[in-house]
């Protein structure tokens, strides 16, 4: 009976073995997803400076006349519109000056009327040869002086009228009150800063640069900016302004960095960090999980445009906390596998995805 069973069992076993081989081949041809990244500028090859997002234009607002602040109509951090009243001075002195000038205008008009009548009378008498030429000339001079005096007083009246309007400080354009420097009851002089307005529009990053090596910073130098609210994204920028003198307390030089990559979601007062190249060598970096080594030689798996893998030797620098600098072997436009590199092999086809599990079309990015 055993001899009858063995011939029957052998073909059945072969069938199962062939089926298993078929499943193995199907499993091998399955295209697995693989997370890919592009090399980034190495943090070890860049200097970073903390900064604060500021407005491109920050005018200091002040009254054009002196006086006592009677009203403060806005608070620090409040958004204001163009021509909106911000503060007022006590108008009593300005009004009294305006009334005094108005009275002087009335007196000058009355005086002009008088000297005009005198001049006309002397002209008539001179035509009749009843007064001398010198007496007429004297009346003519008095008339001209009266005209000039009235013109002068009217100009002073216009100035007083303008000063009455200067008692109200208004916003020159839309923006945010970045700083307040006075309180109600405080006496201010003409031109003394009352508010600092951060106008709407462009945003910049204000940083402080150290004295050592200050000469290597140039206006127009390219930089990258990272906002604390978006730590995984960097924005292109450039140094727009460098202070010619150091701060007497911190001994640092103020610099302003402008964004060059279009609209950036940067809000006033946000913290930021500006990265600048430390030297002429631009090193790239990849995540530690992307690096493999064999017999002391380091390599990464680079993804080809047809989504196949190529083992790429690299020369690396000192390991960082999360990344490792790549000194040779990669270009900024390359894509490398970022995780699971120990199970990959040469020529393997993968489906590239980013950190958000979105498919990356490498052929379209070439």
From TrEMBL:
GO annotations of cellular component type: efflux pump complex
All residue ranges annotated as the CusB-like beta-barrel domain in the record: 207-261
Chain ranges of the Multidrug resistance protein MdtA-like barrel-sandwich hybrid domain: 64-197
Alphabetic keyword roster: Coiled coil, Signal, Transport
Species annotation: Pseudomonas fildesensis
Protein name in the entry: RND transporter
NCBIfam families xrefs: RND_mfp
A molecular function (GO) term: efflux transmembrane transporter activity
Family: Belongs to the membrane fusion protein (MFP) (TC 8.A.1) family.
Every Multidrug resistance protein MdtA-like C-terminal permuted SH3 domain range: 283-340
Superkingdom, taxonomy of origin: Bacteria
Multidrug resistance protein MdtA-like alpha-helical hairpin domain ranges (all copies): 98-156
Entry keyword annotation includes Magnesium: no
């Amino acid at each position: 009976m055993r001899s009858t069973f063995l011939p029957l069992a052998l073909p059945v076993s072969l069938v199962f073995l062939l089926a298993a081989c078929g499943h193995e081949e199907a499993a091998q041809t399955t295209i697995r997803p693989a997370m890919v990244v592009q090399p980034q500028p190495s943090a070890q090859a860049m200097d970073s400076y903390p900064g604060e997002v500021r407005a491109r234009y920050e005018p200091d607002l002040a009254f054009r006349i002196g006086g006592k602040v009677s009203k403060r109509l806005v608070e620090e951090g409040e958004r204001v519109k163009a021509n909106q009243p911000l503060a007022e001075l006590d108008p009593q002195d300005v009004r009294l000056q305006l009334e005094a000038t108005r009275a002087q205008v009335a007196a000058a008009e009355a005086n002009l009327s008088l000297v005009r009548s005198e001049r006309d009378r002397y002209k008539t008498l001179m035509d009749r040869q009843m007064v001398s030429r010198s007496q007429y000339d004297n009346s003519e001079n008095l008339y001209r002086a009266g005209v000039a005096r009235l013109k002068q007083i009217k100009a002073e009246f216009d100035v007083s009228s303008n000063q009455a309007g200067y008692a109200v400080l208004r916003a020159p354009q839309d923006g945010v009150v970045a700083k307040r420097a006075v309180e109600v009851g405080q006496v201010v002089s003409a031109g003394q800063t009352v508010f600092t307005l951060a106008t709407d529009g462009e945003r910049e990053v204000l940083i402080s640069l150290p004295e050592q090596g200050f000469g290597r910073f140039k206006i127009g130098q390219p930089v990258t900016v990272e906002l604390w609210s978006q730590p995984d994204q960097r924005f292109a920028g450039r140094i727009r302004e460098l202070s010619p003198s150091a701060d007497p307390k911190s001994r640092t030089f103020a610099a302003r960095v402008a964004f060059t990559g279009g609209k950036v979601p940067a809000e006033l007062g946000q913290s930021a960090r500006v990265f600048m190249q430390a030297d002429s060598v631009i090193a790239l970096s990849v995540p530690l999980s992307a690096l493999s080594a064999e017999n002391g030689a380091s390599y990464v798996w680079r993804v080809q445009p047809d989504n196949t893998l190529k083992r790429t030797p690299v020369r690396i620098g000192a390991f960082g906390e999360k990344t490792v600098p790549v000194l040779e072997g990669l270009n900024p436009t390359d894509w490398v596998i970022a995780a699971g590199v120990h199970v990959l092999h040469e020529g393997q086809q993968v489906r590239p995805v980013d950190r958000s599990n979105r498919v990356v079309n490498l052929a379209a990015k070439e």
